[in-house]
Amino acid sequence: MEIKTLTVFQLYGFGDYDEHCPSLKNYIMEITNQLINGKYIYNKIREIDKGNSKYVRLRRDYLSLLILSAGYENYTQYINKSPYISSQIREEEGSNFDETSTNIDALYYVGYYVEDRQYYIKSKLTINKMKTASWEILYWENDTIPTYYTYFGKCVPTGESALSFYFSKENSSLNKECFINLFYGNNMQSKPVLLGAYCGFNRSNSPVIGKLIFEQAEDREDQDAKVKSKEINPIFHHYLYSQRMEIDNILPRKDSDLTVSLNRLEIINFLIGDYLGFYLDRNNYLIPISFNIVNNLGELKFKVNNINFKGIGRISRTENYLISEFSEKTPSYSQFSLQVQPLERDLFLGQMLVYTGANVLNGKVLLWKQNKKLKTFIDTNKEFYLNKADLDDVINAKITEYLEN
């Protein structure tokens, strides 16, 4: 097949092209086993054709892939062996090209994750030619001698900004499968820290998932020294703390077996409804509060000082509080909990810690459930702060009894 018979889209492999027919994109992917963006290569060819500049900037990872596709093992071999490179360019490039900084034969990382919520685990990830990888997990099973559990596997292309690694149980010293997704953005070799997630099995063969951090190492010796060091980076530790989920290895016989406590479902159903009430600040002004448990999933809404929160409510282990988990785009670490046991019929006590700008509202909240009279009052009084004198005597008495005392 002659190249001139192919459309631009088919030749470079983007837009309206047939992925089952020949293309430069498919050829490079077949040789390198790496996913590429055909439009990126086409744009670079257009820059050359326009002749606006003598030089074209090309990403290093794409340069390496093009060199491998042309039949050369690395950049040095390309410079020295290519018949299209003049002796002058060969001399210039040979002197200013740092082979160690661009050679992707091997990349070395030290990995970190947390097991059993807080047990800090280090590991070694070595990527070979962006095709295969080994992951060696270190355990100090006694105080002096480290034990490594090793996975070997292959890189799975997932786009231009991420890598995935599949480790089969046949190539694992643990006889367990594992999968890692790793995000690097662009130009992987220039990133000192990479973020990822793993999915595998713990020692009891229960499925586990969690977050990973990979810190770049200069070479194998640096990698080995860092992984054996017992120093713990506090930033990494706090980022990873509790970022692991383990699945029970006992299957339910029916859906109700999945509930931690049937009583908790009954509690949620009991609490569903609209709540209105007040927080008493240090100057004895009342700040209106609204709270709504929407359904038996525990979905909820919370409003204070015209600040709206949404989230989900979880019943505490002791089953005496509903604890709100807010789904904020920018976490402010605001908290709210509702005491399950009413103080009186349809009268509840809550606790909140809410950050509103420079102010912090921290303390008890008194809430009435499904109180139409109070709803009418709050609907007609939209101020941020209210005086006790504005309220009727019955509500005032409850505020005095439960908030002031």
Report on this model:
With 405 residues, the chain is of the alpha+beta class. It folds into three domains: 69 residues, no CATH class; 141 residues, Porin; 143 residues, Lipocalin. It is elongated and about 95 Å long. About 2% of the residues have low confidence.
Mean pLDDT: 82
Helix content: 25-40%
Tell me the Rg in angstroms. Answer: 31 Å
Instruction: Name the strands of the widest sheet in spatial order.
Output: 1-2-3-4-5-6-7-8
Q: In terms of per-residue confidence, which ranges show pLDDT below 50 for 5 or more consecutive residues? A: 96-103
CATH fold naming of the largest domain: Lipocalin
From the spread of the alpha carbons, the general shape counts as: elongated
Helix-strand topology string:
HHHHHHHEEEEEEEEHHEHEEEEEEEEHH
Main beta sheet: 8 strands, antiparallel, barrel
| First-last Cα distance | 89 Å
Based on secondary structure, the structural category is alpha+beta
Number of domains: 3
Number of helices: 12
The CATH architecture of the largest domain: Beta Barrel
The CATH class of the largest domain: Mainly Beta
Please give the number of β-strands: 17
**Beta-strand proportion:** 35-45%
Features of the shown structure:
elongated, Porin, 17 strands, alpha+beta, eight-stranded antiparallel barrel, single chain, 405 residues, 3 domains, Lipocalin
Short recap of the structure:
The protein has about 400 residues and is of the alpha+beta class. The chain is built from 12 helices and 17 strands. The strands form 2 sheets. An 8-stranded antiparallel β-barrel has the order 1-2-3-4-5-6-7-8.
